């Protein structure tokens, strides 16, 4: 009988973001300065640094308004860091980035056409996702922490932040690749099925999308775990040893491309309405972040039905009974059906990560599966 242990998280007061130690002001200034500079660059070079699909959704006027206040806040936070913190590096960096953003915004006018470049870099997507995710999910983790002593800037946060940036900047690559794969499967599309799905009420369409996507994701995920040659590509995602909202960003680009394209193909073959597809994408994106969060919420009976942080944390555990379990992404249905459900009552994992350590850092991890294939 396996003896489950409690996870030990050591308090690290020196790493905590607090107003009184100046680190909160410093890092806020840096975050807002970095975002402001990116946002100004996206504004100046819209054709190369903004995403056509996103521009259709957001209002540039609203964003400029937020940007202006973000820049002033960055200067204010930087100032608190200068006053309080002995090391003034953070505040200095944040204020410098903001001042460069101010100077560029004041002296340079937007150049080139706004005609979207097919492989534009998703700088706008990065800024929106970074600020949105940071404020929403860090707040949730602070309000409902599983481990109160776990710091926001935990070990290897820089690696996962780099993953987060790359994943968002490459949005056009993911979209183009996804569209290409979907269009190659057009010949399988069945108008009778499309009409049947379209006739369903919206809620049922969304439910159908969730279940079908979950089925595909379950088997794709299981294959990446259980096939020797595929595992190194997915092991990258499992190499993370601290779970929080940023941890899920760590994923090998090959695995991300395969996973997203497979789901897109299935969703498009079903032929649900655009609204249903949009709702599914939003649910999936939020759930993918939430399940990695350092967050404990009482889900009631839903915890038996939905993939929750506790359920997915077990998937990331390196403890023997949890290896190769809890594959599903949305509901626990297919783990029940195919015998991989693992949720010991009231217990959370004591250890996360892979049983064999992986190299650290983005580029070494990108190379790792190929090295395994060649060696
Ligand atoms: Zn996995």
UniProtKB/TrEMBL annotation:
EC number: 1.-.-.-
Subcellular location: Membrane
InterPro entries recorded: Fatty_acid_hydroxylase, Sterol_Desaturase_Related
Enzyme class: oxidoreductase
Keywords from the named record: Membrane, Oxidoreductase, Transmembrane, Transmembrane helix
Regions crossing the membrane: 24-45, 65-83, 90-108, 120-140, 161-185, 197-219
Chain ranges of the Fatty acid hydroxylase domain: 206-340
Main location: membrane
Short name of any one Pfam family annotated for the protein: FA_hydroxylase
UniProt superkingdom: Bacteria
A Gene Ontology molecular function term of the record: oxidoreductase activity
Name of protein: Sterol desaturase family protein
Native organism: Reinekea marina
């Amino acid at each position: 009988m396996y003896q489950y242990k409690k996870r030990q998280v050591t308090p690290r007061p020196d790493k905590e973001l607090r107003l009184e130690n100046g680190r909160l002001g410093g890092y806020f200034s840096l975050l807002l300065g970095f975002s402001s500079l990116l946002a100004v660059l996206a504004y100046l070079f819209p054709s190369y640094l903004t995403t056509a699909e996103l521009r259709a959704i957001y209002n540039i006027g609203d964003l400029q308004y937020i940007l202006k206040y973000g820049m002033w806040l960055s200067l204010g936070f930087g100032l608190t860091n200068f006053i309080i913190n002995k090391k003034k590096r953070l505040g200095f960096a944040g204020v410098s980035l903001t001042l460069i953003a101010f100077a560029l915004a004041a002296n340079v006018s937007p150049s080139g056409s706004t005609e979207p470049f097919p492989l534009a870099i998703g700088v706008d997507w990065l800024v929106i996702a970074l600020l949105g995710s940071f404020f929403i999910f860090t707040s949730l983790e602070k309000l409902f922490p599983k481990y109160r002593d776990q710091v926001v800037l935990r070990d290897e946060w820089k690696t996962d932040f780099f993953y987060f940036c790359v994943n968002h900047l490459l949005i056009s690559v993911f979209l183009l690749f996804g569209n290409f794969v979907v269009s190659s499967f057009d010949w399988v599309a069945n108008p009778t099925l499309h009409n049947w799905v379209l006739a369903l009420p919206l809620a049922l369409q969304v439910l159908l999308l969730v279940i079908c996507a979950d089925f595909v994701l379950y088997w794709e995920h299981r294959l990446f775990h259980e096939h020797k040659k595929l595992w190194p590509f997915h092991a990258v995602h499992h190499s993370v040893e601290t779970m929080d909202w940023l941890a899920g960003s760590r994923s090998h680009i090959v695995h991300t491309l395969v996973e997203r394209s497979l789901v897109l193909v299935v969703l498009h073959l079903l032929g649900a309405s655009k609204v249903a597809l949009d709702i599914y994408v939003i649910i999936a994106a939020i759930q993918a972040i939430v399940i990695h969060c350092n967050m404990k919420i009482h889900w009631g009976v839903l915890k038996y039905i939905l993939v929750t942080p506790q359920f997915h944390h077990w998937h990331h555990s390196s403890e023997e009974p949890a290896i190769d379990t809890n594959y599903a992404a949305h509901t626990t249905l297919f783990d029940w059906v195919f015998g991989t459900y693992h949720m010991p009552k009231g217990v959370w994992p004591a250890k996360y990560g892979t049983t064999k350590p992986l190299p650290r850092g983005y580029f070494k991890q990108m190379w790792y599966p190929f090295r395994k294939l060649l060696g």
